[in-house]
Amino acid sequence: MVEADKMRPSKTSPLMGEVGGGERLHALGGSQPFTPPQPLPIKGRGLEQQIWQVLESVPDPEIPVVSVVDLGIVRTVSPERVVITPTYTGCPATQVIERDIRDALDAAGYRHVTIETTLAPPWTTDWISAAGKAKLRAYSIAPPLAAGQRAVECPQCGSIQTEEISRFGSTPCKAQWRCRDCLEPFDLFKCH
């Protein structure tokens, strides 16, 4: 054997990291059991933040300008699981939201993270973020009214001269309203 060949890592070198373990020749000539290298642990907060970022990219299927995080559907995130609460018990989009979250987590390499749906405490419009409310308004949907607020502001012109046309809007969580000033119809995200 040529001296240069002795320096080259062989298939049995511990530097090659054969999957499956077994006996390996130690670099200095002895043998020892081989343990495959393990990934470095990632502290929970950093991993949680990465998962939150993935979830922020998942749009609501009925209102695609807001994410499931903007709407407050995502309740908690840990390195092992994501807990979501649908906007209401019979929300027809719940299964689509779960599927979209699963797809996003899988695509980002978080296949091990489970998704848990809980109905308690029930979702409330108070959980919609300020950014989510701004996105709704920009999409011509009046965000839910704050506690004590009575006047519904038109998302088109800002007027408070508005009236409810129907308690039922384009989806079960919205009501149909109209502005008396600009005469435009719009949805109001119902409070609950």
Description:
With 192 residues, the protein is of the alpha/beta class. Among the domains are: 44-126, 2-Layer Sandwich (GMP Synthetase, Chain A, domain 3), CATH 3.30.300; 140-189, no CATH class. Helices cover 21% and strands 20% of the residues. The protein is built from four helices and nine strands, in the order αββαββαβαββββ. The strands form three sheets. A four-stranded mixed beta sheet has the order 6-9-8-7. A three-stranded mixed beta sheet has the order 3-4-5, with helices on one face. A hairpin with a 5-residue loop joins β8 (174-179) and β9 (185-189).
Primary descriptors:
192 residues; alpha/beta; GMP Synthetase, Chain A, domain 3; four-stranded mixed beta sheet; 4 helices; disordered N terminus; three-stranded mixed beta sheet
What's the arrangement of secondary structure elements?
Layout: H1 3-7, E1 22-25, E2 31-34, H2 44-56, E3 74-77, E4 81-84, H3 94-107, E5 114-117, H4 130-138, E6 141-142, E7 162-166, E8 174-179, E9 185-189
Parallel strand pairs: 4-5, 6-9
Antiparallel strand pairs: 1-2, 3-4, 7-8, 8-9
Give a quick summary of the entry:
The chain is an alpha/beta fold and 192 residues long. Helices cover 21% and strands 20% of the residues.
Under CATH at level 1, the class of the domain at 44-126 stands as Alpha Beta
Estimated helix fraction: 10-25%
Q: Shape from CA axes?
A: elongated
* Helix count, DSSP H or I runs of 4 or more residues: 4
Number of DSSP E strands: 9
Question: Looking across the biggest beta sheet, what order are the strands in?
Answer: 6-9-8-7
Beta-strand portion reads: 15-25%
CATH topology of the domain at 44-126: GMP Synthetase, Chain A, domain 3
Could you state the order of secondary-structure elements as H and E? HEEHEEHEHEEEE
